[in-house]
Design goal:
Layout lengths: L2 E14 L3 E3 L2 E3 L3 E3 L7 H13 L5 H4 L13 H13 L2 E11 L9 H11 L7 E6 L5 H4 L3 E12 L2 E19 L4 E18 L4
Parallel strand pairs: 5-6
Antiparallel strand pairs: 1-4, 1-7, 2-3, 5-7, 8-9
Helix pairs in contact: 1-3
Length: 205
């Protein structure tokens, strides 16, 4: 299968005495997200969308919130591991589209840094990462400022191994040589042909 699509949704409650971390960026705000890890719901959906695209269940299967080693850990760890799962199965990110649902604060000043962080974690160009933020307009738990949600869709593409063959061919040429002893001109004909074969990990399409 050359392409695989994955989707994820995540929600966390906003509470006091927690840092607000979204997309690997710490945001100055009096409330943060409640969770076993740093509760970065942006990185959580990136991770789980990749896992889902690969058909490997969900984020909780790989990083259970009952495991003490993930207590307070940065969610970058989850995305790094998701990248390894993707890469080891011969896939890479084609593109990613992500939406954050949050009433406050305004995220526009932080979006580019989030994109940069995710692009770095997934070893891809920033142009392959799109992040949007939208408000709840006072409706529901988002609109009341009680929590934050994120949704992500990813498209993965198969990495193809190809052989690159370089042909270096020197065509036949004639060289005239003067033989002083015999007072004659000798014509020397020669041909060279070389093939250089290289194996490279290259992306096709």
């Amino acid at each position: 299968m050359d392409y695989r699509i994955g989707h994820s949704h995540d929600t966390h409650r906003l509470v006091e005495n927690r840092k607000l971390v979204l997309g690997g960026v710490e945001i100055d705000y009096p409330y943060g997200l409640l969770g076993h890890s740093d509760a970065d719901c942006v990185l959580h959906v990136v991770c789980e969308a990749i896992i889902g695209a690969l058909g490997l269940d969900d984020i909780g299967t790989h990083f259970p919130d009952t495991d003490p080693k993930y207590k307070g850990v940065s969610s970058r760890v989850f995305v790094e591991e998701a990248y390894k799962l993707m890469s080891n199965r011969g896939y890479e990110l084609n593109n990613l589209d992500l939406t954050i649902f949050i009433e406050k604060p305004i995220l526009k000043p932080y979006i580019n840094k989030m994109k940069e962080n995710i692009a770095t974690l997934l070893h891809t160009a920033m142009e392959n990462i799109n992040i949007k933020a939208t408000r709840g307009e006072g409706l529901g738990f988002i609109g009341r400022g009680e929590g934050v949600s994120s949704e992500c869709v990813v498209l993965l593409k198969k990495i193809k191994w190809v052989y690159k063959t370089h042909f270096i061919c020197y065509k036949r040429f004639n060289v005239s040589v003067w033989n002083d002893k015999n007072k004659e001109i000798y014509e020397v004909k020669s041909v060279f042909f070389e093939i250089f074969l290289e194996l490279k990990n290259m992306i096709v399409i």
